[in-house]
Design a protein that fits this description.
Elements lengths: L6 E2 L2 E2 L7 E8 L2 E7 L4 E9 L4 E8 L9 E5 L5 E7 L4 H10 L2 H4 L6 H5 L3 H19 L4 H22 L5 E8 L4 E14 L5 E5 L5 E6 L7 E16 L7 E2 L2 E2 L4 E7 L5 E7 L9 E2 L14 E8 L13 E10 L8
Parallel strand pairs: 5-12, 9-20
Antiparallel strand pairs: 1-2, 3-6, 3-8, 4-5, 4-7, 9-10, 10-13, 11-13, 12-13, 14-15, 16-17, 16-19, 17-18, 19-20
């Protein structure tokens, strides 16, 4: 887990994980600015400031608590000027208040594993089984050269096709987390890369927490509104409050949107799979079946649970195209599936 508390300007700061903001005064000409805290975090901002143009901007860094002043590097050097005014906490208290207002169970819910949630480990198992079967077939036909070569070529094509399909697993994932109180949050996860709003999040996490993060952004007329974070061999996660009203889901009605696949757990702990679920329709009949393991990590017992994969175009709270979007809802004790209106 990320560090859960930090000190800014000598005071207790909101618990935002690896998120900090620095206020910088700029004077052009400047084409770019880099802020660095050594091996931990660097943010590069594309500027395009004209000679003598002045701006005061807020620059985000994916950094752990640190009282050091960041190192500034102006481009081009020795022409414009950049001055660090200090760490800023604007908006941090509001983000902390939003986080604290969430139900404790929602804040403490185990995170979804990025790859196990999306594809599971079945493709790896299938690939091993396919390779083993092809090797045995080729050995059995080793005295019949032409047929053995045909099996080998066919097997190679099949393995290449399997590898391509296995490589289709998204490197980005959005999970909408909700509970019976009607509260919702959206967790965006990315392997090695995450593009997100540069505004103050509820949480920003990096796993492993020691990973070095390089962030890039462009300065617009209203400041920096989005940034791209890159961390080799690491998972980046960002959490925001999701306004899901007035959408709801119950056994007799899907008021959220089309789901490509649905799993439901009864309060007694029995899982069932229901296939696609169209908007406005009752829940389809189900059969015994478990959801992908990454979406079922030690969820509370004695409550109903809904897990669903959203179809493209279904409301997802502003999720980026290209990554899969999942929904996970945990009910109140002893209740059946159903969300408050």
């Amino acid at each position: 887990m990320s560090v859960l508390a930090c000190l800014l300007l000598g005071c207790q700061a909101p618990d935002l994980g690896r998120f900090r903001e620095a206020e910088i005064e700029l004077r052009g000409p400047l084409s770019a600015l880099e802020l660095s805290l050594g091996a931990q975090a660097t943010t590069r901002v594309e500027l395009d400031l004209a000679p003598l143009e002045q701006r005061t901007i807020t620059v985000p860094l994916c950094a752990e608590p640190d009282e050091r002043e960041p190192v500034l590097r102006e481009l081009p050097e020795a022409e414009g000027d950049a001055r660090w005014n200090g760490w800023t906490r604007a908006g941090h208290g509001e983000a902390r208040a939003r986080w604290d207002a969430l139900p404790p169970g929602l804040r403490a819910r185990p995170p979804v594993a990025l790859f196990d949630a999306v594809r599971g480990r079945e493709p790896q198992t299938a690939g091993i089984a396919l390779a083993t079967a092809l090797c045995l077939a080729a050995l059995a036909l080793r005295r019949r050269t032409v047929l053995a070569l045909g099996v080998s070529f066919a097997g190679s094509a099949a393995l290449l096709g399997w590898a391509a399909r296995a490589g289709e697993a998204p490197r980005e994932l959005r999970v909408l987390e909700g509970d019976a109180s009607g509260a919702w949050v959206a967790w965006d996860s990315g392997y090695e890369v995450l593009e997100a709003s540069a505004g103050v999040p509820l949480r920003l996490e990096v796993v492993p927490e020691s990973a070095e993060v390089l962030a890039t952004a462009r300065l617009g007329p209203a400041g920096i509104d989005r940034w791209r974070l890159e961390a080799p061999r690491a998972v980046l996660r960002r959490c925001e409050v999701l306004d899901a009203a007035p959408r709801r889901v119950a056994h007799d009605f899907n008021g959220w949107g089309r789901f490509e696949a649905v799993w439901v757990r009864s309060p007694e702990g029995v899982w069932s799979t229901h296939g696609p679920w169209e908007a406005g329709e009752p829940l389809p009949a189900g059969a015994p079946g478990m959801p992908p393991g990454g979406l079922n990590p030690a969820l509370p017992q004695g409550v109903a649970v809904l897990v669903a994969r959203l179809a493209p175009g279904t409301f997802a709270g502003g999720a980026r195209p290209g990554g899969e979007v999942w929904l996970r809802w945990v009910g109140a004790s002893g209740t059946e599936l159903g969300l408050p209106r």
